[in-house]
Amino acid sequence: MNFPISNSVYITGLAHQYPEYSQTQEQFAELVTRLFPEHISSPGFRRLLHVNQNTKISSRPTISDYSTWTKDHANPPTIDELSRIFRTTGVDLTVSACNKALKEAQLSAADITHVVAVTCTDQGSPGYDLFVSQELQLPDDVQRTLLHGVGCAGGLSALREAANLAASASLRGRPARVLVFATELCSLFFRAELQAACKDDKNLHIAPALFSDASAALVVCNGLAMKEEQKPIFELQEWGSALIPGTKNHMSYSVSPNGMIATITKEVPKATVGAISSMFDEVCNPTGASLDPAAFDWAIHPGGLAILKGAQQAMSLTDDHIRASLDIYTKFGNSSSPTVLVVLDKLRKMGTGRDDIVAASFGPGLMIEMFRLRRCRDVEIRQALSLGVLAKAHGLGMSVISRLSRPIRKYSMVHRMRTHKAV
């Protein structure tokens, strides 16, 4: 480990949940024709259907079964009706993801000390985090934080808040077990987006062809909260976020009476890709020493194929480096804030991989979020956790823990060199 066990922050459980229905490119085009036959030749629809044909997304999960929809379903519900759907179906989806993450983390609801939640597809108050907490039967005194307005960056925004809470608790000598969840039901705004597309001849409304529904959840623990039997997945080593100058109008969500309408300009891919290199240097390479981006696996938010391919070219990466992002994008599309967490969940199941990982996401602002993570290997986990339990049991000071940690750090360095060669 780079730091004594008590100072470290870990992801100990990670899961995601997609809804039961999905929609292919062909089904999307056919549905649009059924709902708005009189507008199918409008410039807005022609552009949207052209984008749909070229996304390379095989299917997008959704909470709705569109197979029986007719022209009578074309009018969108009110935003109040949409919020009620989110607070039932969306909460259920979230609870499912959270239960899986808690099970892997080997924690009960009573163990959770903090909650950090994020969504951009429901704006009601109290927030959906309260209803999820109640369904999970979390303690009444759990400390809750709900993030809004961060869009597709939200998964890592929530993880950053959780990491800061866990690190702060360590400084105060307290355990922290933070449940993080991100849920988006982008399909709630499907019909409002289609109405905007058929009436707007100037702007490109691409959201209906890209976005899907999903929930992701994870558990973040500081070293003081770790139990010997737990098996952490990733160590959170460094993180940061920044606004990209001059990009305020590149991406936004405006609230309408029937939902939220996304504006995503053609400048977004270039702007986000251009910010990755400098953010990588700030988060992963603060000393300025030579550091090869290809030494990392990359979990990039799949906002679109142009973003993934642009990032790949900018950082001199192969398809293998971004394999999880490509896989999630082509199979499930972009689910906004949960997506990068789904990518991390997928990445850990795609073989041994590289020890170090960079996760990056982008949202309105434009803002970029980035994390540097390290995979927790079994032998390193057992040694580090045994040390942490010993230190806590005997009240050892931080200097003693640091000296005892040196053999583990030496082992970790040798292990990483061997793993890198194997990869």
Automatic annotation (TrEMBL):
One family from Pfam that matches here is Chal_sti_synt_N
> Is Acyltransferase there in the keyword field?
yes
Keyword Transferase tagged = yes
Chalcone/stilbene synthase N-terminal domain: from which residue to which, for each copy? 76-221
Keywords linked to the UniProt accession: Acyltransferase, Transferase
Q: Which GO BP terms apply?
A: polyketide biosynthetic process
Q: Which domain of life is it from?
A: Eukaryota
| Chalcone/stilbene synthase C-terminal domain residues | 241-374
**Family in the record:** Belongs to the thiolase-like superfamily. Chalcone/stilbene synthases family.
Q: What is this protein called?
A: Thiolase-like protein
The protein's organism comes out as Didymella exigua CBS 183.55
